[in-house]
Amino acid sequence: MEIKNLSYQHKNNFSLKNINFKVEKGEILGILGSNGSGKTTLIKNILGILNGNGEITIDNSPFKKHMISYVPQDSGLNNLTVFDTIMLGRIPHMGYKESKKDIEIVTQLLDKFNLNHFKDRKISSLSGGERQRCYIARALAQNSEVLILDEPTSSLDVANAIHILNIIKEVIREKNIRCLIIIHDLNLASNFCNNFLFLKNGEQIFFGKKEDCFKSEIISNLYNIDMNIYKVDTTFFVHPKLD
């Protein structure tokens, strides 16, 4: 998947300016930046909700919306069971009713996300973290070529956040698909993302590997706060400098 010279102008003069990056099969791209940096605007352009200038291709062919599975920050509530909610992800693939394959895929995802004991419960009865697991499972049930996640760990405690990201990483590799993830936790991002796109005031200030971007001067510039960067093995840890 490749984005070339993507730009978008809001009525209030906020814009995305010449965004360029690639996401290869099996990779997770972390999209980082402070609030208002353009992360959501970028995702909306990729999804076709907004229509800016530029080119989006996948395997050198025009990119189409049906190639994407998307999990927003707030997926809302419904009155369906967990099983039926995840089955919604199979709609693009099923005929008049679900097939044995559809049921098998949903059952596997219930296992992966530790949701089996919730499968007959209504979504509205679950905690925020449990719902998030369900919505990510629904997105993966679509078997799309690109998975986009908008702050998927925001409602999760640390243990569940790591569990979910481990599953996502495993599935991305298994299915050899691409993943774009908006995430605010730099330390979690360092563990799970292959490459990074840093946005600031609608502009791209970095795209590349974590070894090249997890540097004090780059992260400090990204968030306008002095940061300390520590490396342990292959993992980077980021902490603000305190007086």
Please tell me about this protein's structure.
With 243 residues, the protein is α/β, with parallel strands linked by helices. The protein has 8 helices and 12 strands. The protein has helices at residues 39-47, 82-87, 100-112, 128-141, 158-175, 186-192, 210-213, 216-223, and strands at 2-9, 15-22, 28-32, 53-58, 61-62, 68-71, 146-150, 178-182, 195-200, 203-209, 227-232, 235-240. Helix 5 (158-175) links the parallel strand 7 (146-150) and strand 8 (178-182). The radius of gyration is 18 Å and the shape is globular.
How do you describe this structure in short?
The chain is of the alpha/beta class. It has helices at residues 39-47, 82-87, 100-112, 128-141, 158-175, 186-192, 210-213, 216-223, and strands at residues 2-9, 15-22, 28-32, 53-58, 61-62, 68-71, 146-150, 178-182, 195-200, 203-209, 227-232, 235-240.
Question: Secondary-structure blueprint of this entry?
Answer:
Elements: E1 2-9, E2 15-22, E3 28-32, H1 39-47, E4 53-58, E5 61-62, E6 68-71, H2 82-87, H3 100-112, H4 128-141, E7 146-150, H5 158-175, E8 178-182, H6 186-192, E9 195-200, E10 203-209, H7 210-213, H8 216-223, E11 227-232, E12 235-240
Parallel strand pairs: 3-8, 3-9, 6-7, 7-8
Antiparallel strand pairs: 1-2, 1-4, 4-5, 9-10, 11-12
**What sort of overall outline do the alpha carbons produce when their principal axes are compared?**
globular
State the low-pLDDT regions, or none.
none
β-strand amount: 25-35%
Query: What percent of the residues sit in helical stretches (DSSP H or I)?
Result: 25-40%
On the 0 to 100 scale, the average pLDDT is: 91
Instruction: Indicate the radius of gyration in whole angstroms.
Output: 18 Å
Order of helices and strands: EEEHEEEHHHEHEHEEHHEE
Gap between N and C termini, in Å?
43 Å
